[in-house]
Amino acid sequence: MTVAVETGLWQLDTTASTVGIQHKTMWGLVTVKGTFGAIGGSGEVRPDGSAVGTLTFDVASLDTKNAKRDTHLRSADFFDADHHPEITFVARSAELRDGDQVHVVGQLTVRGVSRPLSLTARLTGQDATGLTLETEFTVDREQFGMGWNQLGMIRGRTTVTAGLRFVRAIV
């Protein structure tokens, strides 16, 4: 069964959406988790059912529950928030397939470096007020110029999880 999504403009409900990251550190012994407190986004569902849109994350809003670590993550060693205050994901194509699976093709920009990114999201909720997408995927932070790795203690890829609630935009 394929679910139809209403065409038109949609806005991210920032109060009902979350974007988080997690990464193994301390030689794989500790998993650092953080969430972005300030996110935004919008999109458009086209008449053919495909969608496009943009999500933004304020780098300075990343909270790992450790102020010293958060300051270091905002520094030039990692996100370089002074020069690159936002992370953006531009969805060039999003198509609902196989019932609740949404195939998304886009571009992720971190630290001014853009890389193609394809992912699968799941349509986990849809009602008269909006729709919810959930996804989890991994990225290689070194592809975005974040190679800092003192004593080799940061290994592997960063996992990104997102629960995104979109509501019809008021025009």
From TrEMBL:
Residues 9-167 form the Lipid/polyisoprenoid-binding YceI-like domain. Coiled coil: none annotated. Belongs to the UPF0312 family. This is Lipid/polyisoprenoid-binding YceI-like domain-containing protein. It comes from Streptomyces swartbergensis.
